[in-house]
Structure formats: structure tokens, C-alpha cells
Amino acid sequence: MFNLKSLKRDTNRWSWYTLFLVGFVTLPLFALFIRTFSGPGESWSHLMDTVLVGYAINSLLLVLGTSFFSLLLGISSAWAVSRYRFPFKKTLEWLLIVPLTLPSYIMAYAYAGIFDYGGAFSVFAKALGLGYDKVDILNLPGLIFILSISLYPYVYVASRAVFLYQSSRLIEASSLLGAKESKTLFQVVLPMARPAIFGGLLLVVMEVLNDYGAAKYYGVSTLTTGIFRAWFALEEPNTAVFLSIILLLMVFTFVVLERWQRGNRSFQIATKSDIRLQPIHPSKRKGVFLFVIASTPVFLGFLLPLFQLLKWLGITWYKTSSSDYIRIALQSMGIALLSAVLTVLVVLMVIYFPKWNRLKILKGSTSLATLGYAIPGAILAIGVMLPTLQIDRWLLKLSQSVNGSDFGTIFLLNGTIIALVYAYIIRFLAVGFKPLKGSQLKLGESLSESSKLLGKSTLKTFFKIDAPLLKTGILSALLLVFVDIMKELPLTLILKPYDVNTLAVKAYEYASDELIMESALPSLTIIIAGLLPILFLNKLLLQDSRSTKEKNRRTIH
Amino acid sequence: MVKSFNSEEGNVIDGIDLKVQQGEVVSLLGESGSGKTTLARLIAGLEVPNSGEIILDGQTVANASTLVPPQNRMVGMVFQDYALFPHMTVLENVSYGISNNEGKENRAKEVLILVGLQDFGHRYPHQLSGGQQQRVALARALAPKPKVLLLDEPFSNLDASLKRELRSELFQIIQKSNVTALFLTHDTKDAMAVSDTIVVLQNGSVVQSGSAKELYDIPMNVYIAALFGPIVRLSAEDLDCFNYSADESKTYAIRQNHFKVNKKEFSHSTKVTVEESTYLGSSFLNSAKLPNKKKIEFVSLEKMQDTVLIGFETGTLMVF
Q1: How do beta strands B307-311 and B269-279 pair?
Q2: B76 in helix, strand or coil?
Q3: What is the SS3 assignment for A309?
Q4: b or e along A458-493 (b: 16 or more beta carbons within 10 Å of the residue's beta carbon)?
Q5: Which among A2, A453, A550 is the top mutation candidate for probing chain B, defined by the most B β-carbons within 10 Å of its own β-carbon?
Q6: 3-state secondary structure of B277
Q7: Which residues contact B110 (CB under 8 A, 6 or more apart)?
Q8: In this complex, how many residue pairs, one in chain A and one in chain B, have their CB atoms less than 8 Å apart?
Q9: C-beta separation of A98 from A298 below 8 A
Q10: Interface pTM (ipTM) of the complex?
Q11: Residue A543 binned pLDDT confidence (cut-offs 50, 70, 90)
Q12: Cα–Cα distance, A165 to A339 (Å, whole number)
């Protein structure tokens, strides 16, 4: 079937651009793999004999523990709000997502305060007559708690969607057959919702393996903190690369497991419905119980830590609200905005270039967009560091041989904003890809095909037809990526230029310098920045679904 | 021409050779999966053929070494879902493909008059009924004066009652504009109503092509015979009951409405036991048993019961 003539015929400029894009996205991974051939660093065998197994076990325990509690919190709250009517349900339904605005490292700082001497917990314990002064949560179980309450929303969102829309007919059928609610949940809904819920759980796992700030502060040595140690303390890039490979293998094991469990999921689509499940009225006592189930995650994952941060802010406000803070905040938002815009541009290219190209082998390269999110930030940072350093060396040599002059050690990429933005783009490609690909799929192919048949070029079709109709998707993608970049810590720590600071890094620095109260201001700024777009996006998405419903209604008549 | 999407699944288009005359309206008739949509998309340039050649108006637009992109082919297409641009008005939709800048508005208005929507230019697609949307889609496709017009199942989104009205309207417009048209459908009645030539596709190949009458009267095989109306297959043993000596190696079939009831003069007739007679409005559909217990169905004008004599004229028996 391989035919040179048709290969030449079907290769267009988009094929080349797609190839370039593939290189752009996979370069850090390639750099890592190539680097493994130079062997591990000096301390590798020592690490192997001493701490490596401990790192791996800690990472694994974190993943398992956090998965268990995220499932518990996420599924129970999703079932409560999608199946029953109880006081404040509507508000809770929305608030249950909000803990996502608190990055896990900020959650970790807040809870360190809550459980410290004189913190909220000891006040509470005293009021109950219990004698606790302080509970030590700076350990592995504590970290599992922190990660669970900050990451359960991924499970909540996935479960709620299935409960409300995909399994509503089955739930009704099960009730009509006389099954009790618990039977419906465990025998019908959960087995059917498993693929979707595990999809949400995979995001939890990736975030756990990505986390650096919380684990560092709680003194839990994981593979991720090990990479940092190898890079910064041991100054052995090769050892960091080897640790990265082990961590990557772990990540991809989970990715493969998730793919495998999803298997044949066609039975879900068959029951998908636009009609929302009608909630049932529980008894008063049960209503209170359900309220507790749905409000506990919100209280633990948002209100309590928020209260702690506000308390600290009151104490440290006069110290931290300086011009320095404003400069960092602006810098942070500037970088996030710039990177978000570029990320969305690359997302559009990743969606459209392979589509416009006619070579079948390149068509699948769209899926590369999701690669970056699977790679923990620290690993990606190293993967970006290696090739940019190399390119800088070449450029330096080149300029020396051309000009004969010496620029010293000025690097064009490494340690500059370019390397940082590049890493952000790859890391958050998947975040922007999801809403945009969704909107693009909803749009269908026939509109752009019509435009082409009416004589318009590929690019003209994109700007006149696709782009205006994808406005909502583009905006959503932009906001989601912006928020994620504002929160990002591990990658930023490794790649940020010396003279640049972000709010996330500032909060981390305060916390590492035993100035945890001072971290309140940058932390709260990140939370607010995360809240505002989510409020806005909620409205935007609601509008979108309303207008498509309108459209559907009209075409039926 | 040959096209496959996945080499393991075989060819979707498996050696089709088709010629369409200028100004002709041709129906591509086939079930879903027969390859008709793929064939249309290949002509439009939306798919790439594995081998073979497509020539439009003397110009080779696709072969092993050349591939003219869709925007340069001058092929018009009316999509199944109409694919009207939702953010543009009717007039903007229709003007979209007209390249000549000065004549743009005149031409757009001209086509809107042709489809009878001259007063709807400022409306948005979602403010139109399904039938109106379809006419806008047709106007938009006709506006740049395409060499070929492709219509992909244009009636599949419409009610049955609306469909008949629109069918004749649509094809009057096409006839008036004198464009070569390829009409894709799975509905034999649609194909018979509108086209000069019907091409029957099955599994990516042309089974038979010709006028509606040719295909109805002289179908090439049982599949095509059944496509143009319900048939009853008869084995040699069944035909024995009718006093007809059949060739064992051949396949025989007859249309349900070609059985005649209580006509003594037919030499090929037999007594059957009627089991059920269903009222269909203008006729009755009867389910009955031949003397050899084989079940058959036939159409009659009156309600049948018990035992009746049915027969057929030799000319109406189809032999394959």
C-alpha cells in the first residue's frame, strides 16, 4: 500500500507544520530519554541502596490513600446532590467544585496552621473538653488528607456528570423495578459510572504525582521531591533524569490501567440523555445527613482553610502588602496571560494542523496534546532545561565564531521567560485542549467542508467559520489555562528566571522560610484569581448550553 | 476508483466506474454503508482516493499524482444537516461562495428568488423552518455556479408529508438551474421521483444503473428487485404448485402485487390458505400458505379469507 507517488501527492504544508508541532511537543521527553544514555549520576547507586525504595513506596502510598479518600468524598457528595433535594443543595452543588481553586501546597500550609498550637483545631478540642494542644499532621497520613480534600473535585465532577445525565434513565428504571436506593447505587449506577469516575481519578493520581510543595512542607520524601533533591541539592542532573524515568513509568502505568479499565464503554453512550434526573425528597433526618455529606468536603476543602488564610492575612497584612507584592502579582498574571494565549494558539494548531494535513499517519498526532499533562511538572522542567541549555550553548558558540566577541554567559532560552513559557505550553496543552476539542466536535465538520466547497481556502475557512463559532471554547480554554498557570509551582520553581517571581513561588518561599503566616496574601490572591474565572466560566457555559438547547428545539420544529 | 479507510476493513469504494452527462440528474441509491456518501466526498475532494481517477468537466481533479483541493473543484454540496453557517444571515450564507465581488449581491438575490426566499435574506438560519433551511442550503450551493451539485440525503431530516412537497420543489429548482446533479439517497421512491438515471450501489460497487423503469422491470438480481418493491422468492418446488416447471439452478421471484386472485384463465395458479389479511388503506396485504406449506405474501383489493385461487402471468415472473 505504501506508495511514494501518493505520499508526495498527499503531503501539504500542514503535514510539515504538524511534524514541526510534534517535535515541539515531544522535545522535552526526547531530551530526557537521550540523557538516560549518559548513565546515572554518582549518587545513583547510593540512592538505590538507601532511599529510592522509600521514595517509591511513599509515592505509591500517597496515590493509593488519596485515591481512596477522593473516591469516598467525591462519589458520596455527587450522589447526594444529584439524587436528593435538601437545604442549600444548589449552592453546595456548585461549591463542591471550588476546592480546586486551592492548590494543594496552599491547602497544606493552611492546615499546618489549623492543627498547630492555638489553631482552629485546638480551640475546637478545648471547647469539647479534649486535651489536644496540637496534632502532628506533617506526615504521610496528613499529606494524604491534604491531597484528598484538595483533589476530590475531579472525582466529584466526573461522577456528577454520569449520575445526572448518563445514568438517569437507568436509575429511573431501577427505581421502577422496586430497587432500594442503595441497591440502585451499588448494583446499577456505580458499575456503569466506573469508567468515567476512574477517568476523573486518573487526574487525581497525576496531580498527586505532580505535587511538590505540599510533600516538601510535610516532610514526606516522594519521587517528585527526590527529583528536586537530585537536581538542586546533589546537583546531579543525570540522577534527576533517572528518578524522572521511574516516576514517568509509574505515571504511565496508571494511564495504561485507566485505558484498560475503560475498555468497551459503548454501553454508556447508548443510555446518554439530555433529560436531567429528577431529585427525590428525603425525610427530614435523612436530609440533614445528606447536607452533612455534601457540605463536609466544602468545609474541609475550602471554608476552613480559607478562614485560616484570612486570619493570617489579618496578622501579616501590614508586612506583606507592599509594592513588591503588587509587582509580583502583576508579573504573575502577565506571565500567566501570555502563556495562556500562546497555549490556546498551540492548542488550535494541534487540533487543526493534523486535520488539514492529508497524511493518515500524522492525523493521530492530535492526541499528543494530552501528553504534557501526564508528565509531572518537575520532570517536564528538566526536559525543557536539557535541550534549551544545549541550544544556548550552540548559539553562544555560533555568535562567538561569527563576531569573535564574548557575551559571557548570557543565555537566550535557558533561565529566561522563553523556556518557562515553553514548558507551561506543553504542560497545560491538555487543559486547553479539552474544552476546545469539545466545542470543535460539537461544531462538526460539515460547516468547514461547506466553506471549502464554496471556494474558500483552509485558513480563510478557519477565520470566517471555525474561529467565530469556537469563541466560547476559546475563552473557556484561555481562562482554564490561565488559572492553572497561576497555581503552578514545581515547574515554575525550576525554570523561572532569577529576577522573575510568581505568586505561587512567593507563597512557597514564605512557607519554606518559616514565614507561613506571610504566605497568606499571595495564596489568597491565587485563590481569588482562580475563583473569578470559574464564576465567569460557569455563566458562560450555562449560556452556551442554553443556546444549543434553543437551537435543538428549533430544528425539531 | 478504489477507496479504503482501513485496510483491514476492506474497500468502501471497490472499483466504481461512473460517467455522468452534463446537465443530467443522477441518483446514487444505496443503503447506509453502500459507499454512496464516500463516493460523493471523493468527488468533492473531502476524501482522498487510494487509486483511480476523477475527472470533472475535462479536468483531472484526482489521480495517483494530482489532488485538487475541494476549494478549487467547483463542486457544490447540500449536506444532510444543511451545514448553514449559524452566525451569518441567509444573504451572507448565500453570498459566501460567490467570488465575483461586483456581481455578488445580484447573484445572491437571483438565487434567493430562484428558491423563493427573496424576503428572508436578513434572517438567521435558526429563524427558518426545516424546508426553508434546505432551500437556503441549495441556494448557497448553486450560487457560485458549480460544475456538479451533490445532494447528500437532503430529505432525511424532514417529515414524510413535507418531504413529498419539497422533493418536487427542489428538483424543479435544479432543473431550472440546469446543473449536473448527483442525488444520494437510500429511498427508492425519492430516486424514482427525481432522476433521469438511477445508479444502485451495494458494498462499494455499482450493481446496476439505468432509468427507473429499466430497474423496475428488468432488475439484475433479487436485491435490486426487492429494492423497488416487496417481492416473494419462489423455489422450484413452490413453482411446481403453480404448475410451472422451474430450472433448479435459477432463482425466481415475483412482486407481491403481481399475484392475481381468482383468475381461472391463468395456467399458472394454485389454491392457497389465507391466514391473515391486513388492511393497508387502498389494498390488503395477505399472508397465506401454498399447498407445500411455504408461506407467501400477496396484495389484493378485497379482504381475503379461507382458500383462494391465486396465479400469475408468465411475464411477471422474474428469473435470475
Answers
A1: antiparallel
A2: strand
A3: helix
A4: beebbebbbeebbebbbbbbbbbbbbbbbbbbbbbb
A5: A453
A6: strand
A7: none
A8: 90
A9: yes
A10: 0.82
A11: very low
A12: 35
Flag residues of chain B having pLDDT under 70: 1-2, 4-10
Q: Is A305 exposed, middle or buried (0-12, 13-18, 19+ CB in 10 A)?
A: buried
Q: Report chain B residues touching chain A, CB-CB < 8 A.
A: 7, 44-46, 48, 50, 64-67, 69-77, 79-81, 83, 85-87, 96-97, 99, 126-127, 129-130, 140-141, 143-144, 157
Is B83's CB within 8 Å of A449's CB? yes
Name residues whose C-beta falls within 8 Å of residue A146's C-beta, 6 or more positions apart in sequence: A104, A107, A108, A111, A137, A214, A218
CA distance to partner chain A, nearest, from residue B47 (Å): 9
* Distance (Å, whole) CA B314 – CA B320: 14
Residue B255 dihedral angles phi and psi, to the nearest 5°: -75, 145
Query: If 0-12 CB within 10 Å is exposed, 13-18 middle and 19+ buried, where does residue B204 land?
Result: buried
Angle formed by the axes of helices A190-210 and A52-83, to 10°?
140
Q: Which pLDDT does position A281 carry in this prediction?
A: 87
CB contact under 8 Å between B71 and A5, yes or no, is no
Nearest to B83 by CA among B44, B56, B118: B44
Is-contact A81 A89, C-beta < 8 A? yes
* Alpha carbon distances (Å) from B75 to A216, B147, B188: 63, 6, 25
Closest CA to A425 of A12, A7, A27, A9: A27
pLDDT digits (tens, 9 = 90+) for A183-213: 888 888 888 888 888 889 999 999 999 999 9
The torsion angles phi and psi of A281, rounded to 5 degrees, stand at -90, 115
pTM over 0.80: yes
A544 chain-B contacts, CB cut-off 8 A? none
Neighbours of B316 (CB within 10 A): 14
Q: How far is A18 from chain B (nearest CA, A)?
A: 18
- Distance in Å, alpha carbon of B201 to nearest chain A alpha carbon: 23
Cβ contact A174:A184 at 8 Å: yes
The CA distance from A453 to the nearest CA of chain B, in Å, is 5
User: What is the grid cell recorded at B151?
Assistant: 445532494
Q: Are B124 and B64 within 8 A, CB to CB?
A: no
CA distance B154 to B167: 9
Retrieve residue B191's grid coordinates.
Answer: 430516486
Nearest to A555 among B46, B75, B130 (CB): B130
